[in-house]
Specification:
Distance between the termini: 41 Å
Helix content: 25-40%
Number of helices: 3
Order of helices and strands: HEEEEEEEHH
Bound molecules: nickel (II) ion
Strand order of the largest sheet: 1-2-3-6-7
Oligomer: single chain
Radius of gyration: 17 Å
Length: 175
């Protein structure tokens, strides 16, 4: 299956609010497979459907070193949270940018699996951080939204510069 295109900041589609998944069918299974392939090939630890321009409440993650612990969360909710932890985050939709973000240290979540069964889990560490980051995507929120306006402007400039360099590299010198 082909990799899906990951949309990047400041694309306005990253601001769309995801709606609940209602059909737990073969199409959903195919979307999940394609999203995992996309996430692994981009070397990401998490991916929200929003990032591949599908505005459904679906996120996946694999925070293991061995890249063999896939988790799928459909219609996810955070039902309890405690503590606070600051961690450096990056995002496949904001390439090359890393920043410290504070989030709940431990969370309890509920979600549905690909067959539509409801389950609950207690998460901590990077698993909890990544889950909260991906949940934000489903609400149209990015980790850089937590930064000060000044820092966010710096991020935007850095990304614009990166893109200009990519274009120059792609086309080579013009004479
Ligand atoms: Ni992200």
């Amino acid at each position: 299956m082909a990799n899906l295109n990951i949309i990047e900041f400041p694309d306005p589609r990253l601001r769309k609010i995801a709606t609940p998944v209602e059909a737990f069918d073969a199409d959903l299974g195919r979307l999940i497979d394609a999203m995992f392939e996309t996430m692994y090939s981009a070397q990401g630890i998490g991916l929200a459907a929003t990032q591949v321009d599908v505005h459904k409440q679906l996120l996946l993650l694999d925070v293991s070193e061995t890249r063999d612990q896939p988790h799928v969360y459909i219609n996810p909710r955070i039902i309890e949270s405690e503590g606070s932890e600051t961690c450096e985050e990056g995002c496949l939709s904001v390439p090359g940018i890393y920043a410290e973000v504070s989030r709940a240290e431990k969370i309890r979540i509920s979600a549905r699996d690909p067959d539509g069964n409801l389950f609950e889990e207690a998460l901590d560490g990077m698993h909890a951080v990544c889950f909260q980051h991906e949940m934000d995507h489903l609400k149209g929120k990015l980790f850089i939204d937590y930064l000060s306006p000044l820092k966010r402007r710096m991020v935007r400039k850095k990304l614009e510069k990166q893109r200009r360099q990519e274009i120059q590299n792609a086309t080579g010198p013009r004479m």
